[in-house]
Amino acid sequence: MVGGQKVEKRHEGRGPGWVLLGLIPLLGLGLLLAFIVLNGAGVARSDLPPVEDLTVERVALPTEYEMVVSVTNGGPDPVTIAQVNVNDALTGFEVESGNTIPPLGSTEINIPYTWVEGEAYAITLITNTGTTFDAEVPLAALTPGFSGESLFRYALIGFYVGVVPVSLGLLWYPFLRRLGVSGMNFVLALTVGLLVWLVVDGMLEAVELAGQLPGVFSGVPMVLLVALLTFLGLLGAESLFRRGRDESSRLSTSYRISAGIGLHNLGEGLAIGAAFALGEAALGTFLIIGFTLHNITEGVGIAAPILKERRPSLWHFVGLALLGGGPAILGTWIAGFAYSNLLSALFLAVGVGAILQVIYEVTRLLLKDSAQTKAPALSGTNLGGLTAGIAIMYATALLVSV
User: Where are the bilayer-spanning segments (predicted)?
Assistant: First the structure.
């Protein structure tokens, strides 16, 4: 206000030139980075050996006369495969895309070799600079190829591990509905305990897989950020979904729990499928038994939020069972036919983020029920349920790890 008159704020036009002004700093940054990459910022030395970082992703045995090693070059320099040793003996080989693997490139190395079932083999890849990279086949067995029969067998394994135990857990629903208010809150708290265990277990698995990735992927920070972004993204989506509503339904909470558990079961399917694909049938069978017993408790967690609502239709229970257990089938397929540490780590990280969001939702339900009954949120019942959930998952996890 100047001299009693209002002074209007002047804005310059926002034409195409305005966009260009915003892009100029980014273009300058791009040119600088390109110069550094191409010229080494003026400190490059030609007398230094190249930095070679080759990661062995998988060793497959598609026939009795062949080994196939899948590798990724995670370093900044090309890597040239010069020789291949199998059990300390030089052997012939053929690189799918040529002997030189570019930075961030992936390829397969075919090794004509007559292997014996049940034997162990040590494979050494030797580059033209003399650097060696090792791979091993702990127990040689034919790698299942893609066929209708193998597809069905892997699906059956995932069905045993995922859909069946989750369905059996949901059968406790009629029994749980007859519990009193404190009993239902105990089950809700138990659900939180189950989910807390799944978060810790899933994150540890994701970090372990991330550590096996080429360094260029920054695996551990990647999975942590993916889990965090998934959690925040689902929170934001839930806020939009709830806009205009007082509260989201408990049935929708059960579906979110089922989806989060399903992503975790996807990781279990990956572990089982990888074991069978690598010929470790005994380990795979043991994992099936352990995960089946471990996952029956997940059905209780899925059913917990709907205990106080009118009984949903049977089709909802079918949907919850398939959503929670079905991804185990997908996991066995992925690991059995096209296993990737990167994808596995990402799937597990997304699952962790999804389960974190579910923990938030179930905790809100517990707090709401506590406020309605004027009971302390951290009552003995709730604390006991939380502890029991973690203890149950720990005890059943021992069946997998022992």
Answer: 18-38, 151-173, 185-204, 216-237, 257-278, 284-307, 314-336, 342-360, 381-400
